[in-house]
Amino acid sequence: MDWFLGLSPVxxxxxxxxxxxAITALGAAxxxxxxxxxxxxxxCMLGFGAGVMIAASFWSxxxxxxxxxxxxGVRHAWFAPAMGFLAGGLFIVxxxxxxxxxxxxxxxxxxxxxxxxxxxxxxxxxxxLVAAVxxxxxxxxxxxxxxxxxxxxxxxxxxxxxxMLLALGIGLxxxxxxxxxxxxxxxxxxxxxxxxxxxxxxxxxxxxxxxxGAFAAMTMRSxxxxxxxxxxxxxxxxxxxxxxxxxxxxxxNLATIGVILGFMVMMIMDVALG
Length: 274
Fold this sequence. Notes:
The protein is mainly alpha-helical.
């Protein structure tokens, strides 16, 4: 543990987000061995990860952003965090709207309209699935990077432990995400290897975003409240639009218990040990 604490925040963020990427790849690897995975297990993990991310959004990101504004003497300490939170949430909403309108097809022969539409819809679903998970992994990596960078930037309440817990929570919900990408691709007719590669590739953006987030947090202190809140808003948007609806679609009670346990664990760890 001491060797990790002695590293620069950028390297810490890189290692942490490589961990979250590895968990994504582990989830995607399910397709190499199984045709499906227990839905109840996936829903419970998604719910738990959602609870961790909700708690982390406040204690590790939003609350430190407000406190930092107060520390540097900003007149309205709520303004920058509020604008950052709004921008982060809208970023996810706009991204998903863009993906919904994006239509891609590799079929040129339209002689059989039914086959054409079926094939086109299949490719569209596959593309949107991979793109949606990839895009919302960007703010997750950014959140981890900003959390580590905020420690050096002197954000009150920001600790290496809280940043590590945030990475753990994101990693936990990345496992079912990886499986949620690779398994449907397999059902669409892709090979196991190609399904796995696409599934793990959805998490490749997290290390890049993590390094950029840590660097930005260390070098742009005045922008840090906005960046922290942006990451929080993006995470809440992902949780509300993707994780909770997906986890509660079939096993609402299990998903609810998962959210409660995830939130409770993150709250206790962050407050008691942070």
